[in-house]
Amino acid sequence: RSFTIEATVEDIAGNAVSGRTSVVVHGGLVYAGIRATSTVGEAGKEMTFAAIAVDWDGVAVPGQTLAIDIVERRWYSVQEENEQGDTIWRTSVEDIPAASFPDLIADADGRAQATFIPEKGGVYRATVTARDSQGNPAIASTYAWVAGDEYVSWRRVNDHSFDLITDANSYLPGDTAEILIASPFQGEASALVTVERGHIKRHEVLRLTGNSTIYRLPITGDMAPNVFVTVVVIKGVDDTNPAPDFKVSMTQFTVDREEQDLHVEVTPDQDTLGPGDTVNFTVRVTDYQGQPVDAEVSLALADLAALSLADRTDPPILDYFYSTRWLSVNTALLLTRIVDAFNQELESQIKGGGGGGDGFGVLTIRQNFPDTAYWQGQLQTGPDGEATVSITLPDNLTTWRMDARAITKETLVGETTADIVTTRPLLVDPTTPRFFIRGDSAQLGAVVHNNTDAALDAAVTLDAEGVTLNSSATQNVTIPAHQQSYVTWNVVVNDVARVDLVFTARAGDLADATRPTLGTLDGQGIPVYKYEVAETVGTSGQLLESGVAVESLALPIFPDFTVTEGQVTVEVAPSLAAAMTDGLTYLEHYPYECTEQVVSRFLPNVLTNRALQAANISDPNLQANLDAQVSIGLQRLYARQLSDGGWPWWDGSNSNTLVSAYVVLALIEAQTSGYTVTPAVLNRGVSYLKNHMVSVDILSGRFKYNRQAFLVYVLARADEFRGEIDQLYERRETLDLYARAYLAQAIALRDAGDPRLETLRSDFISAAILSATGANWQEEERDYWNWNSDTRTTAIVLDTMAKLDPTNPLTANAVRWLMAHRVDGRWSSTQETAWTLMALTDWMVASGELQADFRYEVALNGKLLGSGAATAATLRETLKLQVDVSQLFQDELNRLAIARDEGAGNLYYTAHMKLSLPVEQVLPLDQGIIVSREYFDPADRETPVTQMAQGETFLVRLTIVAPNDLHYVLIEDPLPAGVEAIDTSLKTSQQVDQPELYDATAFDWRTLQSSGWGWWYFDHVELRDEKVVLSASYLPRGTYEYVYLVRAATPGEYRVIPPTAQEFYFPEVSGRGAGSLFVVTPR
Fold first, then answer.
1. Residues 191, 145 within the same domain
2. How much is the pTM?
């Protein structure tokens, strides 16, 4: 048995880190081991078995009594007829004593050996027994195979295999392997011996005169890391064999990789430095003989604190290049169709893409805290095998680990690490939350370390912006030698976007100043969030000719408080290209990383940039930003492609055909726009889609027909035209309008003159719904499984009409409708926004809507807010105006007027109002989902709590009620600023003796089946600084609980933003819990 021992250590500030190890409960005080000096021997010749006795630590136990018993395992095989009338072999075994050595005494190295001479060929088992001082036995055994001149009765089996035995499991180049061919045939036979790996390295035909032949194979360096030996024995007809027969066997063994292993040394010129100092590393690379080699070396200097969070995920470089390899060779005979495969080739897809002053002068503030201080991928050593690098260290006070990995042209590889430490005699280490909510009260702290040999009287100061300081800014402490002290400040967070903090400690000539290492904004600033009400008031529209548009804005009325904080934002765009900017920005900064959103982040930008280039409109900023986005997006897509060629919705889940088709479309569009796309990735994606096409005849459910239409369209974009195009057209009435639009584009790609396109075009025209705001298309019901909404349908049909019939008046009206239904400059979801932007781009190209020449102005309640001119030079510029809600009429309508004069072009505008509400006063809201949150002491799961002491762990319970089935669900649970979610997957988190998250006794099985906890539905969980995020592709109607652990870290009173739930692609189906206050008390 083994036990895990875990220790959690807290510093004086309450910061905790955990570590653990395992110990084994042993069955005795001694262990025994035994091996044959050679597992293959010959009858009449000595065989030696070596035994050893060791203690728990593997240290030899001299003088230990060892007993070795050797038996011959004799097999008796007879042929019998089974119940089906087939003749089969039945085998029994008998152990016959061969030799015994009961009183061997271990030497000074804990070793003893026994030698005996086997009289005949066969299988021998040697067993060693050792008893400790308390009589506890330790037993081990091993086998040896012996060849003999006479026939040996090996164990017979009912297939075409037999035993092939090597005298060792591993060899060095230059050794000779002895391989026993334990043939079951009597008399003479022929044998084909092949040495294989990837191809046949060597072959030889032998004439076997007995059934226990020893084959000797010289070992060469090119056999590393492993090699396979296959022996096919063919026996003709004779007195012992009435019909031709064959047997096949295979064995593999490893060959030492010493010749492929480079010796890499990395030596720093200093072991201990300060922040900002320069360290020089010397790299030296030699081969297995100690000779210097020309090598390419990658170097990475990383913070050991970050590396300690998790185990290394990549294998050692020698294992990566020289791990055990697969056979990749098949063996076949004319005597049978094919010999059973002895191993299966695994196809592995590998993807390619001086310090601050110490006096009272100018004190450098530490604020640059990267996890990786240096990376160099192609450092080349010279003929002497050496190279040097100089690195200026950042501001982290930590242990830095240099990781060096080397490779030569001949694929010799090696690696090593070396550590250095950055510190200061006097240093200050802040303790702050990772974020704040406006109005939070917090107790900030700093641990001041005295690393000198004498006590220090230190003055510790907090310079703060964005908070009200309720303590003395400077505090004086006496710190004993090699000890630390903790000082605190009480602050209240102001109505700001960020908090900037500088902690300074001075003691005589020693000083240190730093910003928080946990800050995530530029300059290590800490973000400040506020709750902006989800009921955003907004309007959109356009002026296609001279005139005035008047919009009415009214402040919402809340029963418990009056709105006094918030802003009205008005954006005016002089062209469609400019009006699309907010939508592109929304996608670019969307805060989640599911595969669909990775694609949506760059795909519309690719098309927009392509359209602007076609119109000779240059936007260098867009181009530079797009290049970076596409590069990052492609690398993420490459990394997420699964072995079957498809992509999942989230990492860790299975391939999804809808997601995979969307990715393939993005890869094709990127390639069309001139970006380099790895062909193998695209080809595997296309193959995945082709492999997952099913016959239209067996489709059931409307959403499956719709998805098939999308797959057909994407494959057509890849020049793969399928028969399903015609099958779907015959069943087009089963398709939603957007799916018919995909089908129409697929048909047009194959044959732009296909008469069926006119039928589909007529379908779109007749289904259009005209209104004062333009034209749109609506489906009979939503297609939840394929992310589709009426806005998305309108965009996809517009995109199709822009390609098939761009001059039809419906297209311009559909553009009007889409632009009028923006919220905050974009549409309701990533899918609506992405497809709308792509459709508008295609329509913009087809219509030539890239001209502008007019003036415009914006007024609120008769007061001019701003004005501008639309020209060719300002075509991509948007006028953005903001008004504080305190300037609005509280009890009457506010009039927003947008006016333009005559001239070419269209004016697009959007206005939205966002209101900031006191977090603790926000009430729950049910719009199709009910969500609530409670905190509990693990010892009492019935009584919710609103405060915990610093350092304590408690439970957060989210309850989600879904009155109807939900699709692609997102749940966000904001954290109190002084609390951190516990990620038990990290090595530094406490993992032993944590509270159970779920009480299995609280539910019976029927309850679990109908409405139980339901946590298993959540296929993606993110623990962020400021919130916990859950996602599920499907939630059946019912009640769900999700429970997780948090730790109270920083004392204070914190506002907690309400938890929310919504469908990703139908965000109007949503719910909100209540806001609250949570208190972390000092310990």
1. no
2. 0.81
Q: Which residues have C-beta within 8 Å of that of residue 653, sequence separation ≥ 6? A: 1019, 1020, 1033
In a domain, 119, yes or no: yes
Element (H, E) at 598: helix 595-614
* Structural domain includes residue 600: no
Please provide residue 597's backbone torsions phi and psi, each rounded to the nearest 5 degrees.
-75, -30
- The answer to whether the CB of 507 falls within 8 A of the CB of 485 is no
Token pair of 521 as six digits: 């904004």
| C-alpha closest to that of 365 among 485, 487, 468, 516 | 516
Q: In whole angstroms, what is the distance from residue 345 CA to residue 329 CA?
A: 9
| DSSP structural state of residue 4 | E
Same domain for 112 and 227, yes or no, is no
The single-letter DSSP state of residue 366 is B
Query: What would the DSSP string read from start to end of 804-822?
Result: H-TTSHHHHHHHHHHHHT-
305/276 same-domain check: yes
**Alpha-carbon gap, residue 955 to 932, rounded angstroms:** 14
Looking at 513, 528, 543, the residue that finishes a domain is 528
Contact predicate 581/636, CB 8 Å: no
Residue 468 counted as domain residue: yes
Q: Give the structural domain span for 500.
A: 439-528
Domain boundary among the residues 232, 256, 280 is at 256
Check which CATH number belongs to the domain holding 406 and give it. 2.60.40.1930
Number of C-beta neighbours around residue 216 at 10 A: 9
Q: Are residues 236 and 264 in the same domain?
A: no
Whether residue 949 contacts residue 1081, with contact meaning beta carbons closer than 8 Å, is answered with yes
Q: How many CB atoms lie within 10 A of CB 621?
A: 8
- Using DSSP's 3-state secondary structure scheme, residue 72 falls into strand
Q: Which amino acid, 116?
A: F
**In this structure, are 274 and 204 located in the same domain?**
no
Q: Do residues 833 and 793 touch, judged by C-beta distance below 8 A? A: no
Residues 48, 907: Cα–Cα separation, whole Å: 95
Q: Specify the 3-state DSSP secondary structure of 448.
A: strand
d(CA 666, CA 662): 6
Q: In whole angstroms, what is the distance from residue 861 CA to residue 341 CA?
A: 83
Q: What angle is formed at CA 656 by the lines to CA 655 and CA 662, rounded to 5 degrees? A: 115
For the chain, how many helices (H) and strands (E)? 16, 60
Coil vs helix vs strand at 348: coil
Residues 6+ apart with CB under 8 A from 178: 38, 40, 166, 167, 214, 215, 216
Tokens of 503: 């902690």
Domain annotation covers residue 125: yes
For residue 144, which phi and psi values (nearest 5 degrees)? -140, 145
Do 402 and 524 fall into the same domain? Answer: no
> What's the per-residue H, E or C state across 295-306?
CEEEEEEEEHHH
- Cβ atoms of 149 and 72 within 8 Å: the answer is no
Statement to judge: residues 181 and 294 lie in one domain: no
H or E segment to which residue 679 belongs: helix 679-691
Query: Dihedral angle at the C-alpha atoms of 794, 800, 801, 805, nearest 10 degrees?
Result: 180
Residue 66 sits in the same domain as residue 194: no
Sign of CA dihedral 763, 765, 769, 774: positive
> What's the distance, CA 952 to chain centroid?
30
Query: Along the chain (1083 residues), what's the average pLDDT of each consecutive run of 10 residues?
Result: 85 86 88 93 94 93 96 86 78 92 95 94 95 94 92 83 89 93 89 92 92 92 92 88 87 92 97 96 97 97 94 90 76 43 29 35 84 95 96 97 97 97 97 96 98 97 97 97 97 96 97 94 93 68 93 79 81 90 89 94 85 72 81 94 96 94 97 93 97 90 95 97 93 96 97 96 96 94 95 97 93 93 90 95 82 93 95 87 90 93 92 85 93 95 95 94 94 96 87 64 42 64 94 92 94 97 94 96 93
Counting every residue written for the chain, the total comes to 1083
Amino acid letter for position 298 = S
Cα gap 831→815, rounded to integer Å: 17
